[in-house]
Queue: 2 jobs
Job 1
Amino acid sequence: MKSLGEEAKALIQKATDLKQLNDIRVAFLGKKGKLKNILKTLGKLSPEERKEIGQLANKIKEELEELLKSQETTLKQKALEEELRKEKIDITLPASWIDIGSSHPVISTLIGISEIFISMGFSVAEGPEVEKEEYNFDMLNIPKDHPARDMQDTFFLNNGDILRTHTSPVQVRTMLTRKPPIAIIAPGRVYRKDADPTHSPMFHQIEGLLVDENVTFRDLKGILKIFLESVFGKDVGIRFRPSYFPFTEPSAEVDISCTVCGGKGCRVCKGTGWLEILGCGMVDPNVFKAVNIDPDKYSGFAFGLGIERIAMLKYRITDIRLLFENNMRFNHQFKGIR
Ligand SMILES: [Zn+2]
């Protein structure tokens, strides 16, 4: 019994965790433990011997229990110290950097352009990106056989709706629900089947529409001059070229003097000194008729431009795809720039 006690003591002192300690307790002091097994054999001994052995067994049991208890305390303390050591935080180390986001160059360009028109009394109108063909084409005087409707250019949905190819349907929706005077801009995403360094299948447009009595081409020129000088500076050259759009008559395309060479001619402007920047014109009477506005009483102008095109010229970005790749090293260069 004494050697059993010594064996148990040695094991307790070597135990490295609480589970081991419990296993030793069960093996030696449990109901089927080694100490109990010896006590079961006491029946063969004389009463004196039985008493002596019983006392010895109790003494060993007490000693072992005491040792188990103190070892348990030691192990618990060690576990706690280990945990504290692992979870130690060095508050003198530099904190991890939290990056603060910023507007994407397309969005800051869009906001900047919107603010110029808002300052001139225009309000912002919005429309859905999934659009009826009727609003996107028919009511804008774009006939059924017009090449712009071609499957090559337009994304058609299974139900016959389309992804709007321009922001112009917002003009239609506005004129159907509001009476003149109307002065709106409609910024938003548009979709065309197109992808190369200067075209993206999704891009942003901003559309403008002003309808009132006695609106003339001179008003259009004045508004666009203020706008272009606000974006590209007072010295920018502006020219109007006759053009054609189904929904305006007369129509014009507007060029500005090249922002890179200042008009001398370079690679960006293909040697012409001019950059095409937007399309515009006087609202076609057929469009007014489609939305129940009297073309004899009212006149108006509309214009539209690509936001990415403006952003590319403003920031001298040569590939439109850079604007959609969302490489943070690219995006971060525009932090705080408007
Ligand atoms: Zn140039």
Job 2
Amino acid sequence: MTDRRRTPDELLSAASGGDRRALARLLSLVERGGPPARQVAALAYRSGREAVTVGITGAPGAGKSTLVDRLIAAVRAEGTPVAVLAVDPSSPFSGGAILGDRVRMQDHALDQGVFIRSLATRGHLGGLALAVPEAIRVLAATGWPLVLVETVGVGQVEVEVAAATDTTVVVVNPRWGDAIQANKAGLLETADVFVVNKADNPGARETRRDLEQMLDLSPPGDWRPPVLEAVATKGEGIGDVWEAIGRHQGQLAADGALDRGRRERLEREFRAVLAARIERDVEAMLAGGDVGPVVGEVVDRRLDPYEAADRLLEARRS
Ligand SMILES: Nc1nc2c(ncn2[C@@H]2O[C@H](COP(=O)(O)OP(=O)(O)OP(=O)(O)O)[C@@H](O)[C@H]2O)c(=O)[nH]1
Ligand SMILES: [Mg+2]
């Protein structure tokens, strides 16, 4: 049967049995949004299965994909299956190759224990902030115990995506100002592990020191993010990064923060779904016929915008 004719239910059980095309199709449905995506989301949610999730984030070109590639190798050496989502907030289209094209992640293409997929928003209601947790849930529901999420770019979206994972690794480079940029982008609060990658370039020690000093100034918590050096291209420092991720996961599990974090994320997700749906209702209202005359009254200054909004909302309720 072709993928297009399989129902989300059928796709989910096929994907759980190792059918990678079915899994890819499910993720395309999530990306695209709309009623099938809702069905997929509901099924995945009901499965109740969770994956360990690790976000890898940082400025464009910082070496995230190279690092992910090395982490995959480290994880596979332990025998754990791993799925990777490459998130591109700047691109409305995925094509499924952002990551694989750039680095040698293709090396893992024949490994049945590795699944790599890029993710873009397309039509998803609520954008990446919702598409990413849904995609993660699909992977967890189909039996992937570990999901790595690479996010390209710096900014709000990145922070939002980073907030969708248990552990967030922030990759910076030994460049003047990189540590400060990370701070400005709000990554200092989001980071659980810092990696100064491209430590083969000059300035790595200074960047580490800058980050440590910034961490000294932030309020002390239960976990102080370690600041590690790596040369992803040569595979140097990867063991330390993987070990730090494991330590952070251990700490989360030990003090109940893992469960708390996941509950908080679900609540945030629910709020985002609600907000997105209300926003869509507003769009529909504005496109409807009865708004025009009210807008006319507002622009003619016969009605103030607040009263106009009240009037429309009341008319809708009655
Ligand atoms: N010298 C040096 N170059 C590196 C290192 N890690 C990655 N690179 C190079 O940096 C470039 C970007 O690496 P990517 O892994 O694609 O970086 P990225 O952060 O995934 O890039 P985007 O996804 O485009 O944001 C490539 O040419 C890599 O070979 C490193 O440790 N040292
Ligand atoms: Mg990349």
